[in-house]
Amino acid sequence: MKMSSVVCKDIPLSGFIANEEKRQWVPSQVGELLGFILDLQHGIFHVPARRVEAHNKMIDTIIDKHFIVSAFPCLSGSLVSVGLALGPVVHLWTQGIYRDICQANYWDKPFLVSLDTQSELLFWRDNFDGSGYLIWSPSPQSGCVNLLIC
Predict the structure, then answer these.
(1) 25 with 7: CB under 8 angstroms?
(2) Among residues of the chain, what percentage have pLDDT more than 70?
(3) Tell me, what's the pLDDT at 24?
(4) Three-state secondary structure along the chain?
(5) CB 68 within 8 A of CB 141
(6) Confidence (pTM)
(7) 52 pLDDT more than 50
(8) CA dihedral 88, 89, 92, 93 (to 10 degrees)
(9) Distance of CA 6 to the CA centre of its chain
(10) Residue 65 and residue 50: Cα distance in Å, rounded?
(11) Is 2 exposed, middle or buried (0-12, 13-18, 19+ CB in 10 A)?
């Protein structure tokens, strides 16, 4: 009896119901889970193309409107939601965005974002391709004060 057959029988016996649309009984090294593509063969998290396109379209719209935005938290939410595939750089290149969000008097009316945020938007437009981040990346050294000597 194959392992998947055992699992198929054990799931209902445990009181659970398998989702027929999402289930995958055949072992795989590449698959989509929670909006990410997990490539275990190469050890990389990827972002599906549809999410990359939606993200880039949002940035293009902001740039086309000369960096005047409303509902600005959508952009930060979009970046954070793909942060697993971007790695730690997402925290470095969203500081201006968060600063603008915190300083905004309102979120539902258009406002001009800061120059820092404009730079971040241009960075994401030029660098976000969803190519992925290593699942098993080495941890940064702790306690380093100067990155040049670490």
Answers:
(1) yes
(2) 87
(3) 75
(4) CCHHHHHHHHHHHCCCCCCCCCCCCCCCCEEEECCEEEECCCCEEECCHHHHHHHHHHHHHHHHCCCEECCCHHHHHHHHHCHHHHCCHHHHCCHHHHHHHHHCCCCCCCEECCHHHHHHHHHHHHHCCCCCEECCCCCCCCCCCCCCCC
(5) no
(6) 0.67
(7) yes
(8) -140
(9) 35
(10) 23
(11) exposed
Partner residues linked to 31 by β-bridges? 38
* Nearest-angstrom CA–CA distance, 61 and 54: 11
The token pair at 1 is: 């009896």
Task: Reply yes or no on whether the pLDDT at 119 is more than 90.
Answer: yes
Q: In degrees, to the nearest 5, what angle opens at C-alpha 30 toward C-alphas 26 and 31?
A: 75
From first CA to last CA, the distance across the chain in angstroms is: 53
User: Residue 98's Cα: distance from chain center in Å?
Assistant: 16
Integer Cα distance of 123 and 97 in angstroms: 12
C-alpha torsion sign, points 69, 70, 72, 74: negative
- CA torsion, points 63, 87, 30, 24, in degrees to nearest 10? -90
